[in-house]
């Protein structure tokens, strides 16, 4: 059986796919938990959820770093030539800009949350066992300045995720160009 090695049609590595989907699920969970816990009255449940949210946020940050390092050593495959040729310039800019902004917010959002927690005087003890250093000194005024930025960055991140999903669905359902298959688990034959 002849196989054609067309690198423009290459998909992502298995590690890249795994990190993509694990981070996607974690991000949805973090955002959902953040929305739910933010309006809870002060209670043991709220305190428990805040701790879980912080643990998950630090884990998300660590996985994002791992994903970034993987991406640096394993660049994303180029868009297939047939798809790139059919994309208007604005879509190419949106594609690149969305991915860049997503990566930036993968770091900004949890770091701002960590800074807020530190400034509010609530240190992070990862999974209840590993105390992490304060990102900034405890300062209630600083905490009030930082607090809205965690929410703003989280909503911006979710907006970009929705844009990313919309783009993937456009390629899958409207263009029917198979671009989404590059990030789906490979079928072993």
Provide a descriptive summary of the structure in words.
- With 189 residues, the protein is an all-alpha fold.
- The protein has a single domain, classed as Transmembrane di-heme cytochromes, Chain C (Fumarate Reductase Cytochrome B subunit), CATH 1.20.950.
- It is 68% helix and 2% strand.
- It is built from 5 helices and 2 strands, in the order ααααββα.
- It has helices at residues 14-38, 44-73, 81-86, 89-119, 140-175; strands at residues 125-126, 130-131.
- Strands 1-2 form a two-stranded antiparallel sheet.
- Residues 1-8 have low confidence and may be disordered.
How big is the Rg? 20 Å
Structural classification:
mainly alpha
The first-to-last residue Cα distance is 13 Å
- CATH architectural grouping: Up-down Bundle
- Give the DSSP E fraction (strand runs of 2 or more residues): under 5%
Query: What name goes with the CATH superfamily?
Result: Transmembrane di-heme cytochromes, Chain C
List low-confidence stretches: 1-8
One letter per element, helices H and strands E, the order comes to HHHHEEH
How many domains? The number is 1
- Record field, number of beta strands: 2
The CATH topology: Fumarate Reductase Cytochrome B subunit
- Specify the biggest β-sheet: 2 strands, antiparallel
Number of helices: 5
- What is the class in the CATH system? Mainly Alpha
Shape: elongated
**Mean pLDDT over the full residue set:** 91
Instruction: State the helicity in percent bands.
Output: 55-70%
Please state how the strands of the largest beta sheet are arranged side by side: 1-2
